[in-house]
């Protein structure tokens, strides 16, 4: 799960990190009022994407009046950061924050390290908006330092970072405190990323987190209701939200073949086989092992509601999940909603014959597939 910069900064502040103050606003009037607290300030579009600076989503303003007009220009508009999709991001919230005189920009992050079953500190003395470029062209300018989740941050681990940043003794102390906060936040809140880009050295020689990005492990959210509450529904895919509410595991993709599958492994294999034959899936969807006809119906509705779907491939291997339950859900949904696209069904396993009989008796126009490969090819042909 992702959160906004202003929320990430609040969390970091709770953990003792040096973060500039600010106000989250949703109207030009709000921006003007907030700007009255500062001589100069920065208006920052709050959207779930990096690269806002280059996309015109970060603006320096010199007066409350300018804050008003700048906010008018940003709010309700879309910005197109290269990290966001082709639809860009709608701006409905702004962070108004003090403008800081920057001496140097660094990159500092804590993230997971699958290989060592721990975490890593990732840093670069060449932070700021060009970090992706640096990672590509000069990977040696990026340090990665493993940290054990058992011990948390230990001071010596940050020394190479301090050296590469060229920090003096007092600033090195600030860096240790910051890294300790970041690692503690990462571990206590089950994060998958705590990233500060840029971390800056101000004109006065202090470290300050000018931007912040914190992502969380969805599977651990049940342990952190206060974090789950930070979710901004406006930033989520509406179809994925609907699926979540039904307890379905659904990921919206950009292809044209809607998939309804049971089991995450089979769902991934279905996407693979579609791709292998030159097709492209419109979604990942695992209806789960213990779905009821009602749940299958809800899943089918979600797939059908995607305007990008030109054919639907139902690929079921009945184990715990019985094929007749799937068939019932499909028939119910199709009756209620009407299907305007070809429906390809492959049923195998527990109660497959019963399932096929239900589909046959329904009178729906269904293309039956004898195997997964045949189903994939039929679906690709039908979607063309
Ligand atoms: P991002 O582009 O989405 O990562 O947004 P950032 O918050 O990182 O802002 C982009 C860039 O704007 C930063 O790298 C800074 O160079 C600049 N910036 C943001 N806030 C300030 C500020 O208060 N003072 C100065 N001088 N630059 C800022
Ligand atoms: Mn940034």
Written description of the protein model:
The protein contains 13 helices and 18 strands. The chain is elongated, with a radius of gyration of 25 Å. 36% of the residues lie in helices and 25% in strands. Strands 7, 8, 9, 10, 11 and 12 form a 6-stranded antiparallel sheet that branches. The protein has a 4-stranded antiparallel sheet with strand order 1-6-2-3, with helices on one face. The protein has 3 domains: 21-98, Dna Ligase, domain 1 (2-Layer Sandwich); 102-228, 2-Layer Sandwich (D-amino Acid Aminotransferase, Chain A, domain 1); 237-383, Succinyl-CoA synthetase domains (Rossmann fold, 3-Layer(aba) Sandwich), CATH 3.40.50.261. 41% of the residues are buried. It is α+β, with helices and mostly antiparallel strands. Strand 10 and strand 11 (207-209) form a beta hairpin. The protein binds guanosine-5'-diphosphate and manganese (II) ion (MN). Residues 50, 197, 211 line the site of manganese (II) ion.
């Amino acid at each position: 799960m992702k959160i906004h910069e202003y929320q990430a900064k609040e969390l970091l502040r709770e953990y003792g990190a040096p973060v500039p103050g600010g106000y989250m606003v949703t109207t030009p009037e709000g921006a003007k009022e907030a700007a009255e607290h500062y001589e100069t300030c920065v208006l920052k579009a709050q959207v779930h994407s990096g690269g806002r600076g280059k996309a015109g989503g970060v603006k320096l303003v010199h007066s409350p009046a300018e804050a008003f007009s700048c906010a008018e220009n940003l709010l309700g508009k879309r910005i197109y950061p290269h990290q966001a999709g082709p639809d860009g991001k709608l701006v409905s919230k702004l962070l108004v924050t003090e403008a800081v005189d920057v001496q140097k920009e660094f990159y500092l992050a804590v993230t997971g390290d699958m290989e060592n079953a721990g975490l890593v500190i990732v840093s670069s003395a060449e932070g700021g908006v060009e970090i992706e470029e640096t990672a590509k062209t000069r990977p040696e300018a990026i340090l990665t330092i493993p940290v054990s989740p058992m011990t948390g941050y230990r001071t010596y681990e940050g020394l190479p970072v301090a050296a590469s940043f060229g920090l003096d003794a007092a600033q090195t102390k600030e860096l240790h405190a910051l890294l300790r906060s970041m690692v503690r936040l990462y571990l206590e809140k089950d994060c998958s990323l705590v990233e500060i880009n840029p971390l800056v050295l101000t004109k006065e020689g202090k470290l300050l987190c000018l931007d912040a990005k914190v992502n969380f492990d969805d599977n651990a959210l049940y342990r952190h209701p206060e974090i789950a509450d930070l979710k901004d529904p406006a930033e989520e895919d509406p179809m994925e939200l609907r699926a979540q509410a039904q307890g379905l595991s659904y990921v919206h993709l950009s292809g044209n073949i809607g998939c309804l599958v049971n089991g995450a492994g089979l769902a991934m294999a279905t996407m693979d086989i579609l791709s292998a034959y030159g097709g492209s899936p419109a979604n990942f969807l695992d209806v789960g092992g213990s779905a009821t006809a009602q749940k299958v119906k809800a899943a089918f509705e979600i797939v059908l509601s995607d305007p990008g779907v030109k054919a639907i491939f139902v690929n079921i291997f009945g184990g715990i999940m019985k094929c007749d339950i799937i068939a019932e859900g499909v028939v119910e949904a199709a009756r209620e909603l009407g299907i305007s696209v070809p429906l390809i069904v492959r049923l195998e396993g527990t109660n497959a014959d019963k399932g096929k009989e239900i589909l046959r008796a329904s009178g729906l126009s269904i293309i039956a597939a004898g195997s997964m490969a045949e189903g994939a090819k039929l679906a690709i042909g039908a979607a063309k």
